Amino acid sequence: MRDYKEEFEKRVAFIRDTLAASGQKGIVYGNSGGKDCALVGILCKAACDDTVGILMPCASKRNFSIDLQDGKEVAEKYGIETRLVDLTPVREAELKALEGVTDMSPAAIANIAPRLRMTTLYAVAGAEGRLVAGTGNRSEAYMGYFTKWGDGAYDFDPIADLTVTEIYEFLAYLDAPMSVRTKAPSAGLFEGQTDESEMGITYAAIDKFLLQGEASDRDKAVIERFHRISEHKRRPMVTYPG
Q1: 4-29 burial: b if 16+ Cβ within 10 Å, else e
Q2: By C-alpha distance, which of 37, 10, 38, 15 is closest to 26?
Q3: Given Cys at both, which of 108, 142, 143, 207 links 165, Cβ 3.0 to 4.6 Å?
């Protein structure tokens, strides 16, 4: 197990250095009520008192109930300023504007919310001189389980090297609320959605492969497939090589 006391100190120092080098005055991040944003929020608040978490419910009932409650609970415990932006009408307007333009697939519809959230974060960041903190982890990155130009966009990410298993360990060390440490991970993209059910594999199995190189034949096949088809998400933008 990692030394999370040392990890905390190093990551807080990293955030302070990143912010100082940027010339910006504060940090903003998306507070979804989940494990990743809880850890990012705690770290950023320790590094910069001027840290703001934005709650951005968007259509999903879960966004307006358990996710909202959990996000507020973490923010209150660690003294993080919280603001709320309901993106539901924005999403509805976008879908309305696309009528007659194209036939939207379920995946295309699901990815609207993460991109609207990142648009919102960068609007706040630009208006107030803040950096946008990312909340993606190593397990999600390897599987490609993130939205390109949505939660995959940010100015810096203080937890990108941590697996989901390590994030839960870190949160336990920090005594984060049990609500975010025990509920099933979910991006809340549609009703009943959970990360593990959508991928067809548990984070425990993914992390065992990443940390120990071990996996059943079935799990390894799932992991390798997700990693292969999502390679474009981890590459730099394609540009003309002139």
Answers
A1: beebbeebbeebeebbeeeebebbbb
A2: 15
A3: 207
The pLDDT of residue 195 is 87
Instruction: Answer yes or no: are the C-beta atoms of 58 and 64 closer than 8 Å.
Output: no
CB–CB of 64/57 below 8 Å?
yes
Q: What is the pTM of this model?
A: 0.94
Please state, in angstroms and as integers, the Cα–Cα distance from residue 189 to each residue in 17, 28, 63, 111, 198, following that order: 34, 21, 9, 8, 11
In this prediction, residue 184 carries a pLDDT of 82
Enumerate domains of the chain plus CATH numbers: 4-199 (3.40.50.620)
Per-residue confidence (pLDDT) for residue 118, from 0 to 100: 98
What is the structure's pLDDT at 189? 67
pLDDT tens, residue by residue, 151-174: 999 999 999 999 999 999 999 999
Structure tokens at 121: 């974060």
Q: How many CB atoms lie within 10 A of CB 231?
A: 9
Burial code (b: 16+ CB inside 10 Å, e: under 16) for 140-160 equals bbbbbbbbeebbbbbbbbbbe
Q: Which residue has the tokens 């096949």?
A: 221
pLDDT computed for residue 191 by the predictor: 67
d(CA 200, CA 222) in angstroms, rounded, equals 8
